[in-house]
């Protein structure tokens, strides 16, 4: 939704960015690879695309060929919600809720945890923010497995609905786990 276009179901984009946090040794290795290939801001400008990651915020961050890496004591991946985009989503929920609509906030994403059965912290936070803003329910899918269900402030949160339909090319074996072929229907 924007000031000139009202929100519509299923088409309101939530902007997120991905940051990998790595220890000093890994950070130094990444920086050395960049230096070896003479990667710099000019090169970044030559290959810039509309949805590229943001510019590094400090000397503790580098854009390593389209992915932001941050120096950190721990090694982990973080998904960061764009604050303006988040507030736009929550405002649309508040507006619909205050008008008496039954609001279902729905999220599709591919920012899964390494163990697909785990709900990413950013999804938990976003789901609860949607309920706090007035959504009557929250549902999400993307990771091809069932994920937990939570009741938060009396509203259901379906973190991962699994796969309703799932087609594979002949001979594909990466997706053979029985968990991938389960789904849930909530009524």
Question: How would you explain this protein's 3D organization?
Answer:
- This protein is an alpha/beta fold and 187 residues long.
- The chain has two domains: 24-71, no CATH class; 87-181, no CATH class.
- 26% of the residues lie in helices and 21% in strands.
- It has four helices and eight strands, in the order βααβββαβαβββ.
- It has helices at residues 24-36, 41-46, 83-98, 121-133; strands at residues 16-22, 61-64, 67-71, 76-81, 104-108, 137-141, 149-152, 155-158.
- The mean pLDDT is 85.
Secondary-structure blueprint of this entry?
Layout: E1 16-22, H1 24-36, H2 41-46, E2 61-64, E3 67-71, E4 76-81, H3 83-98, E5 104-108, H4 121-133, E6 137-141, E7 149-152, E8 155-158
Parallel strand pairs: 1-3, 5-6, 6-8
Antiparallel strand pairs: 1-4, 2-3, 7-8
